[in-house]
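Lab notebook page, bench 4
Experiment: in silico fold of construct C2
Operator: M.H.
Input chain length: 149 residues
Purpose: comparison with the prior construct
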Amino acid sequence: MNDIPLIRLMNEADIPDVMAIESRAYPYPWTAGIFADCLRVGYSCWVCREGERLSGYAILSYGAGEAHLLNLCVAPEEQGRGLGAILLRHVIRQAERLGAEAVFLEVRPSNTPALRLYYRAGFNQVGRRKGYYPAEGGREDALVLSRRL
């Protein structure tokens, strides 16, 4: 696709497109209600559009000088084109604008493309949450990553 990615605030009308990506990308997707709640409580919610097509999104919460990247996802068929890095840079800038001193996130240890993205962006592992994610046959730990701003 030759359209330039546009990142803009998410709105409720985006939720069906966001859900279509979320369900293709994750075996245990968030619900539409979770996305609606993120909008309702005022989290920093962004979508990446290319032309008429939504290709990714990111959800960032902020409080007490810390930002937490709750969800960053690029449509599976659009991965590997640098859109994740574009979205990540955008939310890091938003965290800085909000006055955050650090950004935190959780990621599955099995999600090597995401780990590569986060490490390249300057994140470091600061912890592990045991059994954090649902997984086939049980639970999977989460790596807790952080980047100082």
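Observations: The chain has four helices and seven strands. Helices lie at 15-25, 32-40, 83-98, 112-120.
Next step: discuss at group meeting.
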